[in-house]
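User: Second chain of the day. Same drill as before.
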Amino acid sequence: MSVRFNIIAFAFKIIPFRHTVIKKYLSLSSRKKKYLRSSAYPFWFKKKWNITTNEINGHQVFQVEQKENTKPEHVIFFLHGGGYIFKATKHHWWFLNRFLKRLSCAVVLPDYPISPDYTQEEMMNMVLKSYHQTAAKYGSEKIIIMGDSAGGGLSLLLVQQLKKEKANQPKKVIMLSPWLDVSMNNPEIKKMAHLDPFLKVDLAKMAANAFCSGKNAESEQYSPIYGDIKDLPELSIFIGTHDIFYPDCKKFKDLCLQKNIPLNYYEYPKMIHVWMLFHLPESKDAMKDIFSIIE
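Assistant: Same format as last time:
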């Protein structure tokens, strides 16, 4: 492990107040929360790329295109993480900047409604409309749905819903440290939870309860691992072994093997949650593999 990686992992371990902060955040009124929520891109982003926005159901959709490139080869339809309760962060924009620098591509980031102020149905409705809008503009055959953490789970929920609607599917789905089962009931999680400096089981359950509105977290509506995984686009998963979502990613891999469903599965020893989003030497290895899937 690099020195930078060890410093970041240690920093996460010594933040003792996250539980209190998230609990207070969830208890705030919608009016107060809006001042803490922002998916806005960094100030320098607009200098490098063409950015347009439109609204769906009152929520913004960011569309980023390379200057003088009106016909991108790929479209990254990115669903950000944040436990379904937080908006996109600057780390997400920095991550997406790598694709815009490397590929002939456009990026679409739906600023989807989040819990607990909106239901899963409202969230999915907005994301679906955003996807159909993107497919109408660029063609579904160019779209790569990508998401990290909760956004990784939402990516799989999205293509499962597209299948139900018999709509045109994207080219690929890339899930980065995905949250596939929000129930957190896998007994293997408890055995390895101490290895994860980033996520804590009790915090994940707090976010899951907000997302599910107190309903059954093992429903396929919330946890895509319980949904239909046959006849979906090409699926890829990136996961580290020091991530509390690792047991469910392994479980999903086994399900795919049992059902003879192709899955590109990338497992990285000792990596933490969404490490590929950070500026780490270890992130470069994951980025090489992600680019190889796309190119």
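Residues 120-138 form the longest helix (19 residues).

User: Great, on to the next one.
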